[in-house]
Amino acid sequence: MEVGVRRAWGVLERGLDMAYWLFKSEPEAYSWDELVAEGSDTWDGVRNHQAANNMKAMKRGDRAFFYHSGKTREIVGVVEVVKEYYPDHTDPSGRFGMVDIAAVKPLERPVTLSAVKADERLHDLALVRHSRLSVMPVGDEHWAILCAMGGIAP
C-alpha cells in the first residue's frame, strides 16, 4: 500500500492531515462544467460499499480529482471536500451517505485513462486496478504525478 493512502485504510500516516481522492461521473449525468457552474454540490447516489467507505474516510479540506467516465475517460478538474459524510437523502434504506464537494480548478490538460495506463508509475493506482469503483483513494505520489500530467501544481 502506498504511504499516501491513509484514511481510506483507517490509518493516518506520517501526521499528514489531507488525503486525496478521485470521484467518477459520466458527463451526461453530471459534468465538471455543471459543478463549476454550481460552485458546490452533494455527491450522492453512491451505493457501492467500498466507495461509501472511502467517502466516510474523507475529511473537510481533502482534495480529489473529478473524472469523466463513459466515452471521454479523463481527469478534468480538482475538487475539495467541503462537508463530511452525512446521510444520503436519495437512499430510502438509510444505509448510505454523501459528501459535499466544491470545484477548485480545472486541469490545464485533461489526463486520459490511456495516458494513466501508459505511465508505469501509476500501475497500482486504484483507477487502473479497480476501474469500476466510483470513489477511490489517490496516494500522495500518484497525486503529484497526475497533477504534473494535468499541468497544475499539486
Can you characterise this structure?
The structure is a single chain. With 154 residues, the chain is an alpha+beta fold. The protein has one domain (19-149): ph1033 like domains (ph1033 like fold, Roll), CATH 3.10.590.10. It contains five helices and six strands; from the N terminus they run βαβαβββααβα. The chain has helices at 32-38, 49-56, 113-118, 126-129, 140-149, and strands spanning 20-25, 40-43, 63-68, 74-87, 97-112, 135-138. Strands 2-5-4-3-1-6 form a six-stranded mixed β-sheet. The model is unreliable at 1-15 (pLDDT under 50).
List keywords for this structure.
single chain, 154 residues, alpha+beta, ph1033 like fold, six-stranded mixed sheet, 5 helices
Q: Major sheet: size, sense and barrel closure? A: 6 strands, mixed
How far apart the termini lie comes to 21 Å
Mean pLDDT over the full residue set:
91
Specify the CATH class.
Answer: Alpha Beta
The parts where pLDDT drops under 50 for at least 5 residues are: 1-15
Order of helices and strands: EHEHEEEHHEH
Count of DSSP-assigned helices: 5
- How many domains in all? 1
Q: What is the strand content?
A: 25-35%
Summarize the structure.
Helices cover 23% and strands 32% of the residues. The protein has 154 residues and is of the alpha+beta class. Strands 2-5-4-3-1-6 form a six-stranded mixed sheet.
SSE layout and pairings?
Elements: E1 20-25, H1 32-38, E2 40-43, H2 49-56, E3 63-68, E4 74-87, E5 97-112, H3 113-118, H4 126-129, E6 135-138, H5 140-149
Parallel strand pairs: 1-3
Antiparallel strand pairs: 1-6, 2-5, 3-4, 4-5
